[in-house]
Amino acid sequence: MKFSRSIILFLFILSLPVKGYCQFLEPSDTLNKKRLIGVSITSGLAWGGSIAGLYYVWYKDFPKSGFHTFNDFHEWQQMDKLGHMYSSWSFGRSVGDLYEWSGLDHKKSSLIGAGFSLGYLTTFELLDAYNEAWGFSWSDVGFNTLGAATYWGQEYFFNKQYVHFKFSAHHTSLAQYRPEILGNDFASRMLKDYNGQTYWMSFNPIYWFKEDSKFPEWIDLSLGYSIEDQLIGDGGNYVITNGNSQLSFTPYRQYYLSLDVNFEAIPTNKRWLKIIFRGLNFFKVPFPALEIANGKLGFKPLYF
Questions:
Q1: What residues contact 125, with CB distance under 8 A and at least 6 apart?
Q2: Residue among 152, 144, 150, 174 nearest 163 (CA)
Q3: Which residues of 140-270 form beta strands (DSSP E)?
């Protein structure tokens, strides 16, 4: 049923007048108050609605306590911290784009985007602060701030993202040993299993110094970070006993060097295609990659 509704909605969008639809996608040259009000209301409702939904689905069933802090910087070898930075940068870009679409000044839009992102993610920390099992994490706030500041600084001073943070993921066999922590289905594994996640920093160093270079601007160098064989948050060894045999997992870090595609640097005059490229640019394109792990150099023919 949901699939059928999606098809109907898609066909309805295609039936809209192309000219009017394209005009709607174009950013306003001057401040459009209707768009500005619409973006602000939608952003506020999304903020409040998602937090309320998360509270009733997740937080309300856990024991509560007074406001307290919790130092979790050492857990998961900082993979979750990079997730905070990536999320903050991504939210900032998305909200900043919407305000710029409404005709608001570019610098003001970037400031609002960064502020929205930081405020939104801080709300999660406040929920954690009153949860007995967790607490307010200053390291989370620090990486949230770093992600928002990286987005804002590039937009405010250069009107361009010279460095893009990206995400890639693949399934591992580790989730089967701790499905309650690492996920028990396709979607939850993608979100919970840090062993299958990689966070990337993509950039084109040639265009930092020579923008008129003949080297394609849309080809980026990408630096990645991930972990492997980590089944518990604190990073200790994990041993599984099965009869007379044992499986031992010792976590370690992985560093990657690869290529990537900067979709936003691909020339096009079509606004709808630019929007698609912007969305694709949040994810790393699979490429061959060099890996450094446990002091050894390896090669992945195609790494996700």
A1: 136, 137, 140, 141
A2: 150
A3: 163-169, 197-203, 219-228, 238-242, 245-249, 252-261
The Cα–Cα gap between 104 and 79 comes to 35
6 occurs within a structural domain? no
Residue type, 99: Y
pLDDT at residue 10 above 80? no
Range of the domain at 30: 17-62+73-161
Count CA within 13 A, CB hemisphere, residue 102.
22
- How many domains are there within the chain? 2
This prediction's pTM: 0.90
Last residue of a domain, one of 106, 126, 161: 161
Q: For 173, what's the count of Cα atoms within 13 Å in the CB-facing half-sphere? A: 1
DSSP H or E run through 278: helix 271-280
Q: Which of 214, 215, 198 is nearest to 257 (CA)?
A: 198
pLDDT value of residue 242: 77
Longest dimension (CA), the chain: 73
CA atoms of 100 and 276, how far apart (whole Å)? 17
Summarised one tens digit per residue, pLDDT across range 235-272 is 889 998 877 788 999 999 999 999 999 999 999 999 99
